[in-house]
Write a sequence for this structure.
């Protein structure tokens, strides 16, 4: 690069700084101090408009102090503490990633949240009035906006999550609408090989006179996958009862065991075989992951069940269980929503219900209209999500290419805490 | 009777289900403390439920020992281990160390429980090898694709592999970040919708099989 080129480059780089240094320092404008919305309290938010002097050479100071009762005049600066000192080209409303419907000022405004652990000791407390001052500082020069007062308080609704609530409500309506439709019309259900194989597995066990092993996973009763596993157990137990085959259900959680005992008992009753029901078919082993795995592996090797069912959520024990099962020659059917364990199940089991198929299993096995309707609802939900993905991707790309602000649509699709 | 066996559980499920679904949207400390209280309640109920579990375990193995079923010796070992650990634990007030000296209870945990758990976890390496051997045999076009992808990823994850096949590092990242991540997300979307639908069915009493039987 020539000397002239270097001079021009230096001029180009320094020109904005020189221009910013030339701007007169002014006190922050449009200052607002208010309780931080959509939070659990103990927080205030302060916002102010961007200024022409904003840049690397200028800084903003935020000062906070307890204020007495409102007097109508600007609160005193005595007893105030500087809790933040940052460059004036940082801390914007857009950094907080709040959606458009819960923003009270434009995205280009400055914003600072005053809360515990941000240089102000114990932070601000709910119900106490605080005075807040913001000052613009450049070198030894300083310009201060009049102090404003506000009181932090907790909120009863997180408006940032409004889109989430709306989507859940809409999805719920779609599901219940689909159930109503399914009661009137037959709904097509695609074949799920893993569930077609349930009868085959039970039949094989009956022919060989060997037991069936059913696991409900590592989760407790609060996990949907465990509930789904328990519901499928009911359907499986009904068929097992009809064939009078032995069923073994070892558990890791005593509450799941108690629930599954009731489900199994009811299935035997519905199958007309209450005498065949054994209280010990559901039994507890331990809550410890590898102790449980060792015990179940031992059962597989000693009892040699002809069919193994692995439903629910699993962790590192999945491969230890299924590989041992495979070594005994049992027909193995797995169903899990633990995506991290799916490769292990796919490689070691004869059939695997992937993700949502676990939730569809109950409907597939029962063929009840109510259950089938739910599946149709889920499919519509998936179509909507797919549509959102397509529209969102197209709009985001358009935004990058043209600089167009499409947040009014994109915020609707985002998970904004 | 039907009220206590059916309607009351359904009513409790509905009220708590709606309450705690809405709790997610309420940031107020009252809502947070309610969640904390209920979580503690669940832990307390879980503690009591453990009695159910241990009773089931004792009963099952007592029957095996009494009937001298095949492998009843293991049941005897279980009884001895459990009663011994409980006795030693009570003797030392559940403490693993006293004045920096390991108690018998701590010894059982450190030198029996931990190595046994470690052994089980270590076996996983051999099981992965045997499962990989079976599944990576190129018996079908799908298995061949799996084999090729596995080789690329394995080579791309170790320095020697990347040295031998320089492109494997970038290819591995592409497979993991594009192909793998998109499929995982697709599965997660399906799982999430399935979980929401199941939760709604349970909250509104459409799915009742978990109460024991599907129909009234």
């Amino acid at each position: 690069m020539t000397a002239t080129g270097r001079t021009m480059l230096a001029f180009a780089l320094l020109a904005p700084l020189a221009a910013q240094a030339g701007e007169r320092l002014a006190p922050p404008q449009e200052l607002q101090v208010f309780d931080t919305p959509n939070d659990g309290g103990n927080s205030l938010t302060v916002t102010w408009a961007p200024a022409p002097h904003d840049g690397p050479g200028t800084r903003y100071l935020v000062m906070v102090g307890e204020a007495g009762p409102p007097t109508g005049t600007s609160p005193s600066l005595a007893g105030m503490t500087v809790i933040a000192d940052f460059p004036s080209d940082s801390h914007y409303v857009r950094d907080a990633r709040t959606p458009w419907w819960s923003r009270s000022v434009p995205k280009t405004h400055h914003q600072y949240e005053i809360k515990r652990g941000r240089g102000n000791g114990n932070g601000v407390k709910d119900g106490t009035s605080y005075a807040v001052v913001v000052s613009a500082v450049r070198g030894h020069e300083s310009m201060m906006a009049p102090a404003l007062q506000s009181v932090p308080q907790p909120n009863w609704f997180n408006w940032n999550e409004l889109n989430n609530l709306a989507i859940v409500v809409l999805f719920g309506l779609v599901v219940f609408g689909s159930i109503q439709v399914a009661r009137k019309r037959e709904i097509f259900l695609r074949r799920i090989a893993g569930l077609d194989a349930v009868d085959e597995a039970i039949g094989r066990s009956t022919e060989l006179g060997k037991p069936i092993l059913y696991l409900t996973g590592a989760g407790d009763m609060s996990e949907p996958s465990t509930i789904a596993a328990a519901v499928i157990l009911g359907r499986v137990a009904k068929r097992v009862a009809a064939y009078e085959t032995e069923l073994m259900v070892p558990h890791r959680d005593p509450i799941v065991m108690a629930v599954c005992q009731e489900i199994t008992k009811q299935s035997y009753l519905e199958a007309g075989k209450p005498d065949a029901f054994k209280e010990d078919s559901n039994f507890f082993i331990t809550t410890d992951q590898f102790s449980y795995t060792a015990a179940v592996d031992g059962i597989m090797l000693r009892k040699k069940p002809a069919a193994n069912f692995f439903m629910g959520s699993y962790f590192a024990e999945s491969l230890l269980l299924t590989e041992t099962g495979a070594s005994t020659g049992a027909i193995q059917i797995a169903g899990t929503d633990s995506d991290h364990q799916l490769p292990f199940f796919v490689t070691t089991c004869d059939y695997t219900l992937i993700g949502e198929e676990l939730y569809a299993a109950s409907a597939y096995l029962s063929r009840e209209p109510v259950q089938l309707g739910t599946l149709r609802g889920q499919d519509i939900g998936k179509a909507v999500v797919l549509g959102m993905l397509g529209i969102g991707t197209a709009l985001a790309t358009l935004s990058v290419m043209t600089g167009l602000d499409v947040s009014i649509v994109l915020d609707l699709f985002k998970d904004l805490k | 009777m039907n009220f206590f066996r059916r309607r009351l559980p359904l009513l409790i499920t509905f009220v708590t289900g709606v309450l705690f679904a809405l709790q997610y949207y309420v940031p107020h400390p009252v809502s947070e403390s309610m969640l904390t209280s209920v979580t503690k309640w669940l832990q307390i109920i879980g503690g009591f439920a453990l009695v159910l579990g241990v009773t089931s375990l004792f009963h099952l193995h007592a029957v095996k020992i009494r009937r001298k079923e095949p492998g009843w010796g293991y049941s005897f070992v279980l009884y001895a281990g459990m009663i011994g650990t409980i006795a030693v634990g009570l003797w030392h007030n559940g403490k693993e160390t006293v004045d920096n000296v390991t108690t018998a209870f701590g010894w059982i945990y450190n030198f029996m429980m931990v190595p046994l758990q470690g052994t089980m976890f270590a076996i996983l390496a051999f099981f992965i090898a045997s499962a990989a051997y079976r599944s990576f045999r190129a018996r079908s076009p799908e298995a061949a694709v799996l084999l090729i992808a596995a080789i690329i990823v394995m080579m791309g994850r170790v320095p020697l592999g990347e040295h031998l096949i320089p492109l494997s590092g970038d290819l591995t990242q592409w497979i993991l970040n594009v192909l793998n991540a998109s499929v995982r997300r697709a599965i997660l979307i399906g799982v999430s919708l399935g979980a929401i639908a199941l939760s709604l069915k349970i909250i509104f009493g459409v799915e009742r099989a978990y109460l024991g039987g599907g129909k009234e």
In short: Chain A has two domains: 25-150, 190-366. Residues 7-19 of chain A have pLDDT under 50 and may be disordered. Chain A touches chain B through 85 residues (CB under 8 Å).
